[in-house]
Amino acid sequence: MKPSSRIDIETLLNHSKTERAIADINKETIERRAFLPKKCKVFSERFTVLQDQPEYRFTIDQEAEKVLPGIIDNRVQKIVPGTQADEQELYFKKRNIGIVFSGGPAPGGHNVIAGIFDAAKTANPDSRIYGFILGPEGILENAYVEITESLVDAYRNLGGFTMIKTGRTKIDSRKKMDLSRATCKALNLDALMIVGGDDSNTNAAFLAQELKADGIQVIGIPKTIDGDIQVKTEDGEVLCAISFGFHTAARAFAQNISNLCTDAGSDIKYWHICKVMGRVASHLALETTLQTHANLTLIGEDLADYVDQDRLREAEKRGEIDYTAYGMTLRHLSRLICDTIVKRAACGKNYGVMIIPEGVLEFINEIQIFIIKLSTIIAEFNEVHDVDFHASFPSLDARLDYLRRLARGISDREASPMWNLRDDELFNDLPSFFQEGLLVERDTHGNFQFSQVKTEKIVMDMVTDYLDILREKGLYKVGINADAYRTAMEREGLDAGAFGGAIFKNYGSADYLLVKETIISLKTLTQAVVGAGLIEEGQALPEVVVDIFKKSVPKFKTQTHFYGYDGRGSDPTKFDCNYTYNLGLTAFSLIANGATGQMAVIKNLEHKFCKWEPLGIPISSLMHLEERKGKLALVIEKSIVDVNSNAFRVVTALRQKWMAAEPGEDCYRRPGPVRFTGISEEDRPITLMLNSI
What range defines the domain where residue 108 resides? Predict the structure, then answer.
């Protein structure tokens, strides 16, 4: 390249190559926007109608019957082709439809808007779609934007909720209900579509009940990357296998975790500890381990059902029953993790990748008890004193002092049965950062915020402490490759067999050699070699022997990672693009046929696209009483991992293989990036694929 004079910055910035290179919109974005999602067969019909499906039964909560009388008799509705001329008038009429995103973002939300926009405009070009800005707060403040074709086209198949933003405001009071009604009437809305998780769809049910008399329909859309909105009938029929955004987030996490697997196997010195989102359920952890074959994955639902058979047998020998054997403790969990680390180190693999779900602590008995008690104490304090607990006690010391006084009956007049001296003693034994985590402010729904607790630090600190004990006992060693050992000894002219028998406990019978448990220092190594008559007393150890011993001493190094917000903001997979677009089409069909209080879902997601079946499910049938902020509230139940499912059983069966605690290569899988195009791109989550068998 010939030397040239330096180009001035204005010319550089205006150069065509610069403009192409740094343009906001690149070729991939243009390609994504142009992609046309597939439509379920029924949506190719000129118009659709709803057909009740009485065979799908649910157990109805008595409280739901009492507070949602206007929508409690809803039935599952299948979307089918319309045939009668008199059905067309309702379908094709001009409508005003509002849409709101509620809660955290999930990949595919923009395609929900695209689906309902395309369907509404096709049915009647004069229909208008309004997007409420910043979530439910936009409804309360009448802040909206009219959604136009150019706006929709700018966001088709793209991730995030950036078109209209989102928020976590809950419409949970008479004043907020009245404000919502006023906004809907001011815009002359025929229908309101709420895209959100379990709490948001619960809100949709109450709004549907509230606005029914005004002729305003409300439809919910199941959104959450956690994958904890799943719908089964009383007979076990799956009507909604997963919420949208789950597949994309799992794939985004899996690609990054796979990269760490590659790094771990290359650098061979780190354990990568990967915490993935999932406040209550471990669906994302399960999917990412299926995607990556990480060496160890904790599934909270599995830990909840844990029974320690060894402790039961030991107690039986003593003629006792060990009730602590029923349920996982933090201490025992750390021992199980250490077992994997020690086994891998023994075959030369002092590295690995571990996946921990964000909410794993909720499945640990002792922690769950603390969470329940502290949540109730905080809720009761707020109600009794009509002030905020966290504002009243801004520091950790102040909160601990309140608990201490509560246990001794100094606060609130008498000792609380909810917090006794034993609780106080156990709680004070926890590290201060963990105490702080357990006392964090609850979210707007009264839930414990696991994302603010350093779960991985709590678990791994205990693991590190126990590994130190195992190292001191000579039980945690790095295996030495037998061939490499013999080559090194022969190069120095030393008798590999003689030294091997003195140093290793398994010399001659294994590919990886383990230093004897009694040899834990250079001093004890010297004693063993002198005792075998290989060197004289006071003679220095051969340098090669010292080097081999040092290689056998494990250094436990970790790198921690949290995967959550990056997955929420990822551009959607082809699966989620198709899924969400059809959810938008489904929502319009429900609205166009007069439905309200229904959740738009796609049945048969676990099967190929040709079997997908759009439905409307009565939200009221999914609701039950659950404790929130210390009180019972009517909510949609979250779906946790089914430990009897095919997907979980496969992971259980392959745990030892993926642990790879034996000589040879690891079993890491490369899921690859979310490509969006190409015949090798996945058509559905592995979890669903396995559960369809």
Answer: 23-244+572-628
